[in-house]
Design brief:
By secondary structure, the protein is an alpha+beta fold. It contains three helices and ten strands. The protein has two domains: 41 residues; 159 residues, Distorted Sandwich (Glucose Permease (Domain IIA)). The strands form two sheets. Strands 2, 3, 4, 5, 6, 7, 8 and 9 form an eight-stranded antiparallel beta sheet that branches. A two-stranded antiparallel sheet has the order 1-10. The longest helix has 50 residues. The radius of gyration is 54 Å and the shape is globular.
Length: 272
């Protein structure tokens, strides 16, 4: 069934057209607004969809490498100070019977070191050789001053006589003894002393002529005339009695020092 609508008069018709225009204007406005809203929504959606991509691109994992390369700056080279190498100390081979180094004793033609005879203010006597190894027994009155033959450092100090003839330990045969390593690099040793100089200690520096002790007959020399057992050797451990007792015949040097000549011992070592 059709419903018929009638309008009354011209004013009514004007109102109708005005209403229709308002409706159309409103509709257009709504459509425009909807279109703009749609564009905003579309842009917003586009940004939101692209955001994960941007975040994913900016995040680097351990397996990814940045697209840009960074050239590291060269590090400065530090020049370390160069130390002057210190020559190693020659090892000392202990003398054991006939299995030993062949030593040739020579005298330095010129030296700046001072040397003095090891016994002062006493009449002495000594021979050109020793019994079974290189050394010299200098016989003199008991209590004669035993002095440093050259400047150096005290490295051997045996202040007690512990030798027992029943055991006859060769390391204790010296009795009281003193040894120094001279500034010339040679070891000088005197044993069978009756006393050590007062105040003498290990590591003490001495000058040529300084008192080290007094001659006597301690150790295995108790049944012999008083004398100084004098040995010249290379520097060694203080307990190495085989080396400290003597490696070089002192006679030539004792003769020179007694005459006031500064003859310097020098070792020329030749292997067997």
């Amino acid at each position: 069934m059709n419903k018929r609508i009638s309008y009354s008069g011209g004013r009514s018709l004007h109102r109708v057209w005005l209403g229709i225009g308002l409706v159309l204007t409103t509709a257009c406005g709504i459509q425009g607004s909807a279109s703009e809203v749609g564009q905003v929504v579309t842009k917003t959606a586009t940004l939101n969809m692209s955001t994960p991509t941007l975040q994913h691109t900016a995040t680097l994992t351990h397996s990814q490498t940045p697209t840009h390369s960074v050239t590291p700056e060269p590090s400065a080279t530090v020049q370390l100070p160069t130390e002057t190498p210190v020559p190693p100390v020659a090892s000392v081979t202990p003398i054991q019977g006939t299995q030993q180094l062949k030593l040739q004793a020579t005298a330095a033609p010129e030296t700046t070191f001072e040397y003095v005879f090891p016994i002062q203010d006493a009449d002495v006597s000594y021979g050109k050789s020793h019994h079974d190894y290189p050394a010299t027994d200098i016989f003199c009155a008991e209590g004669s001053p035993f002095v440093a033959v050259t400047s150096g450092v005290v490295t051997i100090l045996i202040p007690e006589d512990t030798w027992d003839p029943k055991q006859n330990d060769p390391a204790l045969r010296s009795g009281l003894a003193v040894g120094i390593i001279g500034d010339d690099g040679v070891q000088y040793y005197g044993s069978h002393l009756s006393a050590i100089a007062e105040g003498l200690t290990l590591g003490m520096r001495v000058q040529a002529g300084d008192l080290l002790g007094y001659t006597g007959k301690s150790g295995n020399a108790r049944n012999t005339p008083p004398h100084l057992h004098f040995g010249i050797s290379r520097p060694t451990d203080p307990d190495d009695w085989r080396v400290r007792r003597g490696e070089m015949n002192p006679y030539e040097f004792l003769q020179a020092w007694r005459a006031g000549k500064p003859l310097q011992p020098v070792f020329d070592v030749e292997e067997e």
